């Protein structure tokens, strides 16, 4: 077991007990001061270590022992955010089934739905939406989910959240709508699929009388 994964010997022992299924030993360690939400030097929680290692037994048992899916502490992200970026939806699905909040924010003011954006984690987006995640939330820079999707060139997510009702006219702290990032990449650098998605967004905007800030295609 890699000692770098743990912030203290007690945390390492707790993880080992959870991974082996020795819940009696795990509870003894917690009673003796072991913290199921402790962070290592890389600001990763024990739940995060379990996800990193793909250890479902440790993960499930840590949740049973009281590890919090929304714990932030000094870390940038919560376990929910880490789960949202992973292609294996097991982690996120398991925490949601246990009643984990969809609205916990990281140090950037982003909920797990921000983290789930992207072509490889669409299943996580669906899980969060099905669990009632707020689509109108904004981060510390006043960016919407559409701003974030545009900034990472996740064009499918841009259209998805526009159609779900995110305000296309919303501006971030610098006064930009999502279109500033969405049309930033020159058209000739886009793959055919991205061009098609961009054209769908243009059409969506025009149908609603919203000016297209199409600086990239010119």
What's the helix and strand layout?
Blueprint: H1 9-20, H2 23-31, H3 46-53, H4 56-64, H5 79-85, H6 90-97, H7 112-116, H8 122-130, H9 145-151, H10 155-164, H11 179-182, H12 192-207
Characterization of the model:
By secondary structure, the chain is mostly helical. The chain folds into 3 domains: 1-67, Ankyrin repeat-containing domain (Serine Threonine Protein Phosphatase 5, Tetratricopeptide repeat, Alpha Horseshoe), CATH 1.25.40; 68-134, Alpha Horseshoe (Serine Threonine Protein Phosphatase 5, Tetratricopeptide repeat); 143-218, Serine Threonine Protein Phosphatase 5, Tetratricopeptide repeat (Alpha Horseshoe), CATH 1.25.40. It is 48% helix and 0% strand. The chain contains 12 helices and no strands. It is elongated. The termini are far apart. The relative contact order is 0.08. Keywords: ANK repeat, Repeat.
Q: Could you give a quick summary of the protein structure above?
A:
With 218 residues, the protein is an all-alpha fold. Helices cover 48% and strands 0% of the residues.
User: Approximately what portion of the residues adopt beta-strand conformation?
Assistant: under 5%
* Count of individual domains: 3
Please identify, by name, the CATH architecture of the largest domain.
Answer: Alpha Horseshoe
> Which CATH class of the largest domain is shown?
Mainly Alpha
Q: Counting H and I runs of at least 4 residues, what is the number of helices?
A: 12
**Backbone structural class:** mainly alpha
What is the β-strand count? 0
Biggest sheet details: none
The gyration radius over C-alpha positions equals 20 Å
Pfam families: Ank_2
Keywords: ANK repeat, Repeat
Protein name: Ankyrin repeat domain-containing protein
ANK repeats: 108-140
């Amino acid at each position: 077991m890699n000692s770098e994964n743990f912030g203290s010997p007690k945390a390492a022992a707790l993880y080992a007990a959870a991974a082996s299924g020795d819940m009696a030993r795990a509870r003894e360690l917690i009673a003796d001061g072991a913290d199921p939400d402790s962070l290592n030097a890389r600001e990763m929680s024990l739940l995060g270590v379990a996800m990193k290692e793909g250890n479902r037994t440790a993960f499930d048992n840590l949740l049973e022992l009281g590890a919090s899916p929304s714990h932030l502490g000094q870390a940038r992200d919560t376990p929910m955010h880490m789960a949202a970026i992973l292609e294996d939806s097991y982690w996120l699905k398991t925490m949601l089934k246990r009643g984990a909040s969809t609205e916990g924010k990281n140090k950037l003011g982003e909920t797990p739905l921000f983290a789930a954006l992207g072509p490889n984690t669409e299943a996580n987006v669906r899980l969060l939406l099905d669990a009632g995640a707020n689509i109108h939330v904004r981060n510390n820079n006043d960016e919407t989910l559409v701003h974030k999707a545009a900034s990472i060139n996740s064009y499918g997510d841009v259209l998805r959240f526009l159609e779900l009702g995110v305000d296309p006219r919303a501006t971030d702290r610098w006064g930009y709508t999502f279109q500033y990032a969405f049309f930033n990449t020159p058209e000739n650098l886009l793959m055919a699929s991205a061009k098609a998605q961009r054209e769908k967004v243009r059409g969506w905007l025009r149908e609603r009388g919203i000016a297209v800030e199409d600086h990239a295609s010119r």
